[in-house]
Design a protein that fits this description.
CATH class of the largest domain: Alpha Beta
Helix content: 25-40%
Number of helices: 6
Largest sheet: 7 strands, mixed
CATH topology of the largest domain: Rossmann fold
Distance between the termini: 35 Å
Shape: globular
Number of strands: 7
Oligomer: single chain
Structural class: alpha/beta
Number of domains: 2
Bound molecules: S-adenosylmethionine
CATH superfamily of the largest domain: Vaccinia Virus protein VP39
Strand content: 15-25%
Order of helices and strands: HHHHEEHEEHEEE
CATH architecture of the largest domain: 3-Layer(aba) Sandwich
């Protein structure tokens, strides 16, 4: 994070969040619903240097989870995985998971078409799904990384309901464990979320994988970014 941005975020957090909101409205004028994330993808709005899914999806920020995920999948006896959202599949294409079925899903159709062409095979399929509205396939594990952080409270509750109804056994999802409270946003913006706190109150996760996040802030502002594992239904 640039020094001025860091200063603003720490000294005037509410002003900083207002600025982020204005930037969002200016760069994505009037875009709502399914078109929102398609526009973000097309405009490369998140400016990831090696992944269109943003800096958090790049090679460096995913090192820890790329190392940890295969052993966790094995230990849990997971044979089928729904990676929702899969984004551009950049970091996941570098993970060797022992699975019978991998399903990557995302709300952006363009991403799904590109992923299918580049990475689809007998065991690996990509499908368009809106986690807040669509019926989800029944799998052993749903990986939902860096998704709820972009959604309003209302959309997250809808998504949790879809995930619960899918029949999956486990959910592995992003949580920032040191945050005392959660703040609502408009879908499409971003903020950290602690899923153990209201209005989610998931309870203690079965497992926590700290991602070793160094994104944006060299002082470690996002050092608590983790993947939490919960048994479903929540
Ligand atoms: C920051 S990227 C993370 C992608 C991936 N999980 C990763 O770790 O690289 C967020 C993704 O969420 C997708 N997305 C946003 N809202 C969604 C929804 N309601 N249903 C499915 N995917 C959604 C976006 O299209 C985008 O690809």
């Amino acid at each position: 994070m640039a020094p001025m941005k860091r200063f603003l975020a720490r000294t005037f957090p509410s002003l900083y969040h207002q600025m982020a909101f204005v930037k969002h409205r200016l760069l994505l004028p009037g875009v709502e619903g399914p078109q929102l994330f398609a526009t973000i993808f097309r405009k490369n709005f998140w400016r990831g240097p090696d992944s269109r899914s943003g800096r958090g999806s790049g090679f460096v920020q995913t090192e820890k989870i790329r190392e940890t995920l295969p052993a966790l999948v094995k230990e849990l006896g997971v044979r089928s995985l729904l990676d929702l959202p899969c984004g551009d599949f950049y970091w996941m294409s570098n993970v060797a998971l022992e699975l019978d079925t991998y399903i990557g899903a995302d709300i952006v159709e363009e991403l799904i078409m590109t992923n299918t062409q580049a990475f689809g095979d007998d065991k690996r399929t990509f499908i368009v799904r809106d986690v807040t509205k669509d019926t989800l396939p029944n799998v052993d594990l749903i990986l939902c990384r860096d998704c709820f952080v972009h959604l309003s409270f209302e959309d997250i509750q809808q998504a949790i309901s879809r995930i619960n109804n899918s029949g999956a056994r486990y959910l592995l999802t992003t949580t920032f464990v040191d945050r005392a409270t959660n703040r609502n946003i408009r879908t499409g913006q971003w903020r950290p979320l602690n899923l153990e706190k209201p209005p989610f109150s998931f309870g203690t996760p079965l497992r926590l994988i700290n991602e070793g996040c160094t994104e944006k802030d060299k002082d470690g502002t996002y050092a608590d970014k983790s993947l939490g594992l919960w048994r479903l239904p929540l």
